[in-house]
Amino acid sequence: MNRQTGDVRLEDAGNGTWKLVGKLGFTTVSGLLKSTPRSFSANGDIKLDLSGVVRADSAGLALLVEWLRDFERNGRSIEFLNMPGQMQSIARVCGLAEILFDTSAAGTWET
């Protein structure tokens, strides 16, 4: 199942992996949060591939934090993979690197 909101879409890649594709920012985050499929947060742990994100801002990181909190509240985990450099930079500046990512995990965080 794919969900598209404006310039961003969330694709079910199977086996608990989802891919975020497009622009992740102030104009798309609200709609994406509202349209997130129930199965995204209801069916166990997932991995979210961010390699398809072509542009992001602090609202995009806020969305990741919201998803992370939702998963933690439900005793599940979400792992963010292949974060683009721009998002990594914003996460570092905002002090979110340690919250969002296990910086020792291979493939999760670029150094």
Offer a few descriptive terms.
111 residues, alpha/beta, 5 helices
Structural write-up:
The chain is α/β, with parallel strands linked by helices. Helix content is about 40%, strand content about 30%. The chain contains five helices and five strands, in the order βββααβαβαα. It has a five-stranded mixed β-sheet with strand order 1-2-3-4-5. The protein is globular. The chain starts with a strand and ends in an 11-residue tail after the last helix.
Query: Order of strands across the widest beta sheet?
Result: 1-2-3-4-5
- CA radius of gyration is 13 Å
Q: How many structural units, i.e. domains? A: 1
CATH topology: Transcription Regulator spoIIAA
State the CATH architecture: 2-Layer Sandwich
**Helical segment count:** 5
Which CATH C-level class is it? Answer: Alpha Beta
Q: Give me the strand/helix succession.
A: EEEHHEHEHH
Annotate the secondary structure layout.
Layout: E1 2-5, E2 8-14, E3 17-24, H1 26-35, H2 38-42, E4 46-56, H3 58-73, E5 78-81, H4 85-94, H5 97-100
Helix pairs in contact: 1-3
Quick recap:
Helix content is 41%, strand content 31%.
